[in-house]
Automatic annotation (TrEMBL):
This is Uncharacterized protein. It comes from Helianthus annuus.
């Protein structure tokens, strides 16, 4: 029974996740879902109610690859083992979180 999760909530998270992915991977899709469409869904125009903006510096991964001679993927980490720290730097733009608080959503209370 998933009665505690409403259909609109599922749809909201789905669209929000899609928007976040779109921000990371394909800006074209982001324009496909227009701001007016988001606001008609009652969502934040900026982040789609995720209250998060994907970091463009690290593509939302929260870490930056250094070198790049190895293939991109989780296998990279297991291969390098203990030296993985040398190849994966924390993104200091987003403090390795991969995202920022949405400026639109956090506009009310400025820290
Ligand atoms: Zn980042
Ligand atoms: Zn927002």
């Amino acid at each position: 029974m998933l009665e505690h999760i409403t259909a609109s909530e599922v749809a909201g998270y789905g669209v929000g996740a899609l928007l976040l992915c779109a921000t990371i991977t394909a800006p074209k899709i982001d324009s496909f879902i227009s701001a007016s469409q988001r606001s008609s869904l009652g969502m934040c125009k900026r982040c789609g109610d995720l209250k998060l903006i994907a970091c463009s510096n690290c593509k939302g991964s929260g870490s930056l690859k250094q070198g790049g001679s190895f293939s991109f993927g989780p296998s990279d980490v297991s291969f390098t083992g203990g030296n993985s720290m040398m190849r994966s730097l924390s993104c200091n733009k987003c403090r390795s979180r991969g995202h920022f608080p949405c400026p639109e959503c956090s506009k009310v209370s400025t820290t």
